[in-house]
Write a structure and sequence with these properties.
With 112 residues, this protein is α+β, with helices and mostly antiparallel strands. It has two helices and seven strands; from the N terminus they run αββββαβββ. The protein is globular. The mean pLDDT is 93.
Amino acid sequence: MPAKNLDRAVKFYGEILAIELQFMDNPQMKMAFFPTRDQGVRGCVTHGNENKPNSEGTLVYLNGGEDLGTALSKVQAAGGSVIMPKTSIGENRYMAIFLDTEGNRVALHSMS
């Protein structure tokens, strides 16, 4: 996900998800990776490339943990805003959507 301010974005995601992102610099951009278990697929927040935050493009879903309500309840205090509250999506359980500090529209998913 692109960030205007990488430190601010890392702080935001660290606060709402109670995680520590791992920084990595390369010549083209700065990156901070979300943690993962067992070397699985993970995402990152980037700064310095030509990507720009967007509230209308691809909707990225993040793992909201046991109950996405926990992370969602921290969004506003961390500088974001909730667009769609925790909502049942039937057998696929629950989702919510928020805007992060950078202007990205992001979703959370959880089983409860």
